[in-house]
Amino acid sequence: MTRDGAPVPHALATVLRAVSPCAVAVSGGVDSLTLAAAAARVGVDLLCVHATSPAVPAEATARTRALAAAHGWSLIVLDSGEFADPRYRRNGADRCYICKGHLYDAAAHAAPGRTILSGTNFDDLNDIRPGLTAAGERGVRHPFVEAGLDKAAVRALAAALGLGDVATLPAAPCLSSRIETGLRVEAEDLALAHTVEGWIRDWLRPQTVRCRVRRAGLVVELDAAALDALDVGGRTALLAGLRVRAPGRPVTLARYAMGSAAHPALKAAE
């Protein structure tokens, strides 16, 4: 708790005070926005850094700008430059590592003398995240991990801090994660994946949707409940709508599988 009674856990507040002055790398998702809000509530010397690129949805940038303005956070918006790096565009297994390296280097350049913070939470340690290696090489700190907060705790904190809909934002990995490993990252493909996912969210309201761009075409993944709820007519209508939005590309449906774009084979359900 902070001295004004704000619901920032003591362990987290202690970490945040220890790393001040700090710069939070804010993606526009629930974790990093909540970390920024917690740091501001604790009263540390805070700067937020947000990177834009074709892999970052426009609404994430708009959300970041709006919350920074509403809460009085100092914010720098920059281009971290990964799209100019041919290694990133080649989309090898090290893409995330390369991307995070650019992000944290740009943040450090924009915020000299500040400790760079990420919104990584304790649950993230269970996933394969090459970006954590890039963070470790640059001395980036992960206050939620250090304080033992998992995703549920972060969402609860977001609600307690008055962040409204941020607390219930769905997980939103970088759009480049939709591209099959080894397939070149193109801005047009990222925009297509984002458009398809937005259309499906508005129509079906699934818990999870991912539009994977694969060599064989598009694979739209839905959580099991949403996929199973589609009858024959619903699947036909969904596939027809997808083909209108992605003309000339084969489209299939599948159950959601985390990180499936990294694997060469996927069982698709027509």
Automatic annotation (TrEMBL):
Keywords: Hydrolase. One of its GO terms (molecular function) is hydrolase activity. PANTHER family: EXSB FAMILY PROTEIN, NAD_GMP SYNTHASE DOMAIN-CONTAINING PROTEIN. This is Adenine nucleotide alpha hydrolase.
